[in-house]
């Protein structure tokens, strides 16, 4: 039997010992990695070296060196996604990728864009823009957690049948890998299959995708996919990968913004300072569409190497999944509530590195919703040197916490104590307001329902306040919530 001289790999060491690899001050606890990500110090150093190169020889770097580095980055991310490098390009963020796809498709009378009620706010607004400026209409499929994956797929199939029965064409469905708020793993693999069977194009918003969960696009073959690299993959901001399989690249006729490599439908020809090269038009359009700082894209191989050095993709994802779930259960126990339970029959048990825990809050007057939100996100965040996302979903207040390799269980125990004390303070204020209202005879309008507001406009079912859009019911004005 052959023997190996290779020493067994050391078990990865995650937790506070890895904090020194990141740039957080000693007194800061980052519990919201999911919104904007965080880069390790070696990646920052690598980016700074690229900046120096770009300033030492601007033309050589922009015209030649950066292009070869970009090819290496595309090859690296393509390998992770299990697709050819010719089918991936880089864009600034997932919202931009969604816009590129939606704005390139051609819509006709009767076309319908479908999405779920948990769509990210900016993407939901983009769908509304398309509905406002093209013949297409849009339909939001209600989604309230906890829910089984099978019910989600069933809701989609039923909606498609209703659209077809009305003589319309379900053209495209948008869905997440992991939704933002609630931070829940979506059955995206099953949805791809359901969309194909229904003859509907699939556009996956994988903002919380690469580095967060296992992604195999080669096996699942969606029609369009975009994922941030700066959230969970440790690449600098802003960086995202857009996947368009060769079969669908003719549908993407222009980058956003349109630039030198766009091919006009007319015979008009325009001089371009760029070499025509041998790459596909799809690759070329996104290779250069205006001068930007592309160094975040060029750091993807370094980010992947860092991840490999500290334990590898599987180990990172497992640690974060386990910490999120076990930490969330611990927080819920301290608060006397529960986590937003995933479908146990889902892929990986429905787990991801984000966990949602119900906050023990009394029904709150609608006039106080904004104040309560700011209390948690701003006042507590600044005072305690941290940040947590809070939101209302399915008649309850929830907090979303992100697990990461530099965190440990004690961080979850600590934030649980902070949240418990703050909830007690808010409940006391709520009781006092209720007592005052009773004395004065006023009837308070209480919030216990979703802050999402549905509007029906021109016979279209449109959701105002989708995903991360928190709406003050009293003012009916949407307030954007990032991340």
Automatic annotation (TrEMBL):
Keywords attached to this entry: Pyridoxal phosphate
Keyword Lyase listed: no
SUPFAM superfamilies reported for this sequence: PLP-dependent transferases
InterPro entries per the UniProt record, alphabetical: Aminotrans_V_dom, PyrdxlP-dep_Trfase, PyrdxlP-dep_Trfase_major
Residues of the Aminotransferase class V domain: 66-346
Protein name, per record: Aminotransferase class V domain-containing protein
